[in-house]
Structures are given as C-alpha cells and as structure tokens.
Amino acid sequence: MGSTGGQDYDLKIVDAVIVDGTGADRFTGDIGVKDGLIAALHRHEPGEPGLPGTAAETIDAAGQIVTPGFVDIHAHYDGQATWDELLDPSTSHGVTTIVAGNCGVGFAPVRPGSEAWLIRLMEGVEDIPGTALAEGMTWGWETFPEYLDVLEQRHFSADIGVQVAHGPVRAYAMGERGARNEPATAEDIEAMAVIVKEAIEAGALGFSTSRTVAHRAMGGEPVPGTFAAEDELFGLGRAMAAGGRAVFELAPTGSSGEDIVAPPAEVAWMKRLAEEIGMPVSFALLQVMSAPELWRELMEESKKALEAGIPLYPQVAGRPFGMLTGFTTRNHFSKRPTFLALEARRAAGELTDAAFAAELAKPEVRAAVLAETDEPSDATIPGDSVNMALQRLVGMTYPMAAVPDYEPTPDRTVTAIAADRGQDVLETVYDLMLEDGGKAMLTVPLFNYAGGDHEAIREMLTHPASVFGLADGGAHCAMICDASQPTYLLTHWARDRHRGEQLPLEFVVKKQTADTAALYGLGDRGTLEVGKRADLNVIDLDNLTLHRPRMVRDLPAGGGRMLQDATGYTATVVAGEITRRNGQDTGARPGRLVRGAR
C-alpha cells in the first residue's frame, strides 16, 4: 500500500473487537496504520467517537475481531519459497510470518552437483514431490548466506525466515560420510560449526536437526544427524549461540513413537544444552499411542527447566496429528492393479479427475478393486509405508464432513459405520471415499488422540512450557494440511468445542502471535501496539469456517498438494498492505526475508 500523501493513515480499521495478542481482555477500538506500522490504537466504547483522521482506506470491522498476524514457527517452504510468492496453505489462514528450515532438512549449504540428493532427502522426510522441487527450484547458491541472499531478492505475501538445517550442513562438511550418518570427528564438528555460526550471523533464525528414525530420505536412509553424538550436538549448539540470538529446534528420538525409552534422556541433554548456551531449545512433542502418558513426563521436565530459568520449550499441535486419505491421494487401494492402472491414466492426462472418479464409481471397477490384493510393498519407501499403515490403522479411521470434526466420537470410525451398514470395512472405506464426486477425505489421527478426545491437547496447549507449532506448512503434501491449525485454534478451541472445556479467545490468539514471535526473538511483531509492524487479521469470528481439505495439482510438474479453505477472514494485512481480502489473494507482496532476531 505504501504511504499515501495527504492522508493521516494508509489504513484505518474501525469499531473492531481488538484481541491484541498480549492475553489481555478484548476491547472495542480503532487501529490506524501508517508506513507499515501501527501508528494509532484508539480504545472506545461502542457508539463513542472513533479514531480521528483520514485514511486512504477504511475497513468497518463492527462485529468482527482484529488480531495480530499469526506467526507460524514450523514450516517447510525452503524450496517452495524460491518459486512461489504466495506461500499457501499457511497464508490462507492468517499467517503473516513463517519460519522454515525445521526438522534438520533444507537446501543450504549445497555442494554443486548434490542438489538432487537434497531434493530426495526433502521428498522422503517431508513428502514434498521431488518432481515439483526439481522443476520449480531456482537454486543459484552454495553457502547458506548465499541462499539467504537469493530469498532476499524475492517478495512474498508473508514474511519468511529460515533456519540452517543439520542434514545439508553435515553432508556439505563431511561428504558421503556425513550423508551416511557416520560418526563425526572433532575436525568434522569444527567444520560444521563454522557453517552454522556463519549462517546465524547471516540471519538464520535457528539451527534444526532430526533424531527420529521415522524421518528418512527416498532411499530409506535416515536424515544426516539422526544419530549424532552429544559432542556433535553441543558443538553445533555452541556455534549457533556464538552466531547470535537463535533457536535450536529438533524432532527428537521417540517423537514418532518408535522409541518410548529414549525421550526422557533426550530431554535431559536438551535441558543441559539450553542451560549452557542460554538459547531456546524447542522440540516436537506429541502424544503417541504406544505410550499415551509419556508426554506428561516430558512436559513436566520442561516446566522444571523453565522454572530454573532454562529456555526449553516443547512444541505442540492444536489438534490430532495423522494422515488424510482419499481417492485423490494415497489410499487403502493405491497398490491394487485396477486402481494403479486408472491412476496412471489420470496422471498421464487421459482421465480428468471427474472421469477418474466416474470410473471408480462403476460397479465392476469397485468389485475388481475390492477383490484384488496389493502389489508387493517396501516399507522403506515412504509411499509404500503409508499404504501399509492405512491398512493397519483402518480401525482408527474417520470420515470427514464438509466442515470437518477433528474430535469425533468412536461410533464415527469407518469400522463402526461398516458394522451399521453390514459391510466389510474396506467396502465402507471405498464407498465413503467415493462421496462428493470422489473428493471425500478420511482422516487417521495417529498422534494426540489416544483418549479419543482433545483433553491431552488442551493440557498441552495450556501448559506453561509449551509453544504452539507443528503446522508443517509446505510439507506432507499428499498426507495432511495442518497449516490450517491457526484457524482451528479460533473455530474449535475458542468457539465450537462441545466435548470438553474451550479455551479463551485471548489465550489462543496470544499462543500463536506474541508467544511464537517471542520464541524467535521477533520483538517487532506479535502484538497490536503502537510502533509494532502492522501485521494483522480482521476476522468475522461468528462465521469463520474451516472446510474439508482438498487435493489440488498446482505444484510444478503437476505435483499435488492438500489445501484447506477457510471462509471468514475479512482481511489479512502484512506490513500495512492488505494481502488477502475476503479470503482471496490481492496480489500484494509486502513480505520479505526475515534476517535474525530483532
């Protein structure tokens, strides 16, 4: 928008219910924006005089809330940011600042010629189509500072910051030995430390690593750094701290439920690291089915650390964590010959999505698919492992309505529905996925749903040690769309939940604005205060609606990804410019690279 001559403000938002991100009670008032900053904040009672002065544009927000823009600290747009300015699905859900480079995977530094290896690593770990990355990415860098320089030339619909990731650092410094997870020597650690310190000094917001064996490249090999010894982890943590204010982020051992013995030991070394370097350490924390109470132990250890002044923060989600399945993505029949043949025709352009669904609906095709057995599967291949998991977890699979219910009761499982219908469960799965012209989705809540409700999630969100994250925007394109969680915090937790206690609106806004901004030292945003960045949302909360995820094929090379629409966002403003109006992209691109804490 820019400053408009002759006007007191570039933008005024009047008669809004202001939820300022601090956790304080909401109030009625007006906001004046000038030169990308909040220039005035005028509190008044309904009917009283509002903020004086003229504006180039005024939004009447009567009956609506205004919040700070949401700060999403867990995304994977590292490659997408080199070709895509929109950064969806995150920006469709009120996100105005994004932190990428999580979980130890990224694209810098990179040895010339090893670009394809980093793509395979990202594809395997984060389920981002490798063909889309190969076709879409521009590259043009070797070192991490050079990568930031490339991103700095681009304009986005939201600000984006990036962390330096362990996987590419290890492979760059150690070559094949690093990629194969061989132990690092003292010289290796020093070489990696130089890279990490240089990256933080150049503006990386943190350092990330993955220690879960569930994170694997396309060939089945774990992410470089998965088995890093303590001397390596502490050496890189010290290097990060030497470079400046930053966050040490990780997916710890056991975070995917593969090991329920290791997590307490993981928290112990994280606590020691955070104490030594004096920087925040943030780790992914989910409720796992194999040990449904383990998260409490880890939370309490984190709370004790915080009470001792040690910055250790479990990163938690706002809803169950799992997989989506349907005929437009991976599903229970993806390895059956008849389905494979139809999918190949659709992928080749011989069948439109509608024609593909029509074929699947034919009785003879349905009968053939249901009668077949799967082609051989390889559990080390991510796609095959997903198909195998879907078969195994059919008893905890739920259909999704047009407006999804992420806290369904046990009688809504496909197993229960099949019993009511007198069908085999896979028949029911097939028929449910055929609904809505073959676009229907089922959901499998793998994590955070061991009790069949959201009580564990509520405790995680309200725990003083926790920080909200794990939205995974840009990742797991065929499996999830958790980037919609900022909207879900508002619709479910602050308004609609009926199976248990809700959470105050002021709390859920602060949880994803002031708190997430503070973790990464982004003190210029996260609250609505005079002098702060004019990053904000105008939201018709009464009518805010989160719709069912849908598959679109708009990535480079025809790659597919899940998007999830939300209606009720009147406006999203980034640095004073309206980037989305009534849920639609305006074309404004005020977002820039965020270099370092401020």
UniProtKB/TrEMBL annotation:
Gene3D superfamilies: Metal-dependent hydrolases, Urease, subunit C, domain 1
Lineage top rank: taxon: Bacteria
UniProt cross-references to InterPro entries, sorted A to Z: Amidohydro_3, Metal-dep_hydrolase_composite, Metal_Hydrolase, Metallo-dep_Hydrolases_sf
Regions annotated as coiled coil: none
Annotated Amidohydrolase domain residues: 57-579
The protein, known as: Amidohydrolase family protein
